[in-house]
Amino acid sequence: MTDVSTAPAPFLTAWFEILDSDEPSRILDLISDDFSLSILFSTGDGNATDFAGGRAALVGYLEQRERGTRTHHKLSATTLGQDELYLGEVRRSGVPEASFVAAGRVDAKGRLQRLLIGRSSEIRFN
After folding, report:
1. What is the Cα–Cα distance from 78 to 103, expressed in whole angstroms?
2. Going by C-beta distance under 8 Å and a sequence separation of 6 or more, which residues neighbour residue 81?
């Protein structure tokens, strides 16, 4: 993993690097005890799945992922206090597939407390 300590949205940048690695389940070590998330995952044509809840929802999301196929690429990011915002592109085997935006809140212990992600194959930002 690269050193992103001075980069915008360092936590989410590292999060997506781990998610794309050979051991994506390591992100489970980065969440707070009161973690909650909603990942709205659109595949187009009005079809979407909302992975919402706590740790169990994140485990469910990880279990259904196509590991090693889809990767996340940062287009822009910023940090505002304890909140990070991240705009990215999902690529399947290197080919752009969807755009996504993520918002995360990092608690005082450096763990992810809240995560909201929206993904759509219907819009591109680059």
Report:
1. 10
2. none
